[in-house]
Every structure is written in structure tokens, then in C-alpha cells.
Amino acid sequence: LNVVVILVAAGSGVRLDAGIPKAFAPLCGEPLLAHALRGVVGCGQVAHVVIVAPGSHLQQARDVADQCPRVDIGVDVCLDVVAGGADRSASVAAGLAALRPDDGIVLVHDVARALAPAELFTRVIQAVRAGQPAVVPGLAVTDTVKVVDAQGRVLATPDRTSLRGIQTPQGFLREVLERAHADGASATDDAGLVERVGGHVRVVAGDPRAFKVTSRLDLAFATALLQDGPYAG
Ligand code: C5P
After folding, report:
1. What is the mean pLDDT of residues 23-38?
2. Inter-residue contact 113 to 168 (CB < 8 Å)
3. Taking each helix axis from N to C terminus, what angle separates 88-96 and 174-181, rounded to the nearest 10 degrees?
4. What is the spatial distance between Cα 189 and Cα 6, in angstroms, rounded to a whole number?
């Protein structure tokens, strides 16, 4: 089965306050989108990438993709750029509309998780190939999590050992993800939509480097990782 990655990059990035869509915010001299693309194609198993960009920035997204060193890894990756929607789920749906007939396994990845390593993509793809129809990477939660109401009153404290912080890339058999999106519902992740229609979702080990760049603090952390960490060089 061919693997396609829908890279959702149509967020406005208001929380980052960079004045440009987050996908184009610079990180060590390159836009977040370039870093994210490197992780996506770096696993060497992706045949097709659909970048879902803000409608106002389609050409910029194409330019970033054209500069990505795809030839370095010897993979002939097909690239499409499409315009996103009003929320994340609508942007994923726009990406689904751009799938090609050969695409059988669909990964959905947030551009904001720009430093997700290639091995995380490999782990998710392998789990789907091994027979799991819906796979999400997850990490143990280190904070105690409480359910609160609008007044800040604590309603419950779920047992932390059963909680996971869920990341992307999330991987699906194509028909499973298409069915989950068929009614146009919204959720904060794609597995949530699969769960709503009764699908089974499995968690595989996440990776701390797949954290979501949301704030300027996250950008500083990402910069430090690139300069001093395993990505240095
Ligand atoms: O808003 P949130 O942090 O959940 O966004 C996660 C990802 O979804 C980001 O990579 C963002 O670019 C993308 N997104 C999108 N279209 C939207 C909103 C968010 O592609 N309308």
C-alpha cells in the first residue's frame, strides 16, 4: 500500500504571534514547513505528500517544497499543495480530496510538530501495515490532569497512568479516515473522528521531539534542539 502524508499547515499561528502563518515562521533560518517536510520524506516510505496551506500562501508553500532536498534520499515523492479550511478537520478534509488512486495508507501530520523524527513516521506506518486500521503516537502524561468546569471548579482527576498525550503523525487505512470525515464533523485530532464512528484506535510510542510548536517558548526549545541536540549539524 502506498503511503500519503497530509501535512496540515493552514493554521494562522496567532498564538505564535509571528505575523505570518505558523508554517512559514522561521526556525534556525528555515520555515517550520521545511523542517516538517524533512521528517515526512526522511522515512523514505512516503510516495505522496499533500501540503494543506493557507489559501493566501499556496505559492509560498510550493516554493518551500521545491527547495526541500528530496533527491538526497532517492525517493520520487509526488507533491500537491491545496488550500485549507476553517478549522483543522476541514483542512484535513481538503487534503483527503487531493488523494490519488494509489494512496492506501494515510498519515495526517501537523506542520507545527516540525521536528517529529523520521523514525516516528516509520513506527506509525509499520503499525498500520501490521494490521492496525488507526494508529496514534502517545506519550505518558507527566502533569496530573484535572477536569474542570467554566468556573475552575475541579470535577474529576483521572488516573494519570491511563492518560496519554497524543501527537501526530496519526496513521490510517484510507477508507477508515475517509469514513470518519464523511459527515464533515470536527475534532481536535483525526483519531477522535474515527472513535466517533466506532473505529478502534491504537497507541504506539510517541517521541518527545514531536512536540507541537505553539508558543514562542516552544520555538526557543526547537531552536535549542536543532543547535545542540540530535539535529545539530
Ligand atoms: O490549532 P492546532 O494547534 O490544533 O493546529 C494543529 C495543526 O493544524 C497545525 O499544524 C495547523 O497548521 C493546522 N491547522 C490547519 N487548518 C486550520 C487550523 C489548523 O491546517 N484551519
Report:
1. 95
2. yes
3. 130
4. 13
- Residue range 61-119, pLDDT digits in tens: 999 998 876 545 446 899 999 999 999 999 999 999 999 999 999 999 999 999 999 99
Q: Comparing C-alpha atoms, which of 24, 27, 35 is closest to residue 219?
A: 27
pLDDT of 233 reads 45
Handedness of CA 89, 177, 113, 8 (dihedral sign): negative
Could you tell me the pTM of the whole model?
0.95
pLDDT at position 232 is 55
pLDDT surpassing 70 at residue 183: yes
Cβ atoms of 218 and 37 closer than 8 Å: no
Mutate which of 88, 89, 219 for ligand 1? The one with the most ligand atoms within 8 Å of its CB, which is 88
Distance from the alpha carbon of residue 69 to the mean position of ligand 1, in angstroms: 25
Is residue 110 within 6 Å of ligand 1 at its C-beta? yes
The grid coordinates of residue 211 equal: 512536540
CB 219 within 8 A of CB 213: yes
- CA 47 – CA 79 distance, rounded (Å): 9
Beta pairing partners, 52: 8, 82
Residue ranges of the alpha helices (H) in the chain? 32-42, 58-67, 88-96, 118-129, 174-181, 190-196, 216-228
Element (H, E) at 139: strand 134-140
Number of residues that this document lists for the chain: 233
State yes or no: cis peptide before 208, omega within 30 of 0: no
